[in-house]
Fold this protein.
Amino acid sequence: MEEYSNYVKRTQRDYSMSLKLQIVREVEQGSSSITQIRKQYGIQSHATVLGWLRKFGNFDWENQSPLNMAKSPEQKIMELEAQVKLLEKQKALLERQAYVADKKAILFDMMIDLAEKEYHIDIRKNSAPEQSPASEQKNKKQ
C-alpha cells in the first residue's frame, strides 16, 4: 500500500461541497474508482469518499440498489401487469358501488312514490316555474 509522504490530518470542512459533489459524480459515472479519486485529490481515507457517496449519491444503501437505475423491459412489464391488476380490482369495486347506488336510488324513488300515494302529499320538488315573457325576451337579447 502506498504511503503518503505529506500526511496532513484533515476534517470534512477542508473539502468544499462542490468538490464532494464532483467526486461523487465521477465515481457514480464510473470514470474513476475510489482509489483513483483518493490519489488524484489527496484524500487520505477510503471511508471519507464512501461517506460522501452515501450522503450525496444516487445509490440506495439500505436496499443495495441504484435509485435511478434503469429497469429492464421484463421489470417494466411486471410492474405494468401489477398496475393493471390493481386498476381492474378498483374498477370492479367502483362498478359494485355504482350498482348499489343505482339500486338505492330506485328503492328511494319507489318509497317516495308510495309515500305520495299513501299520504296524498307532494314530496318531490316541483319543476322550475315557467319564465315570464319579459325575462324570456331579456334572455334572448343576451
Remarks:
- The mean pLDDT is 79.
- The CA atoms of residues 38 and 117 lie 92 Å apart.
- The longest strand covers residues 59-60.
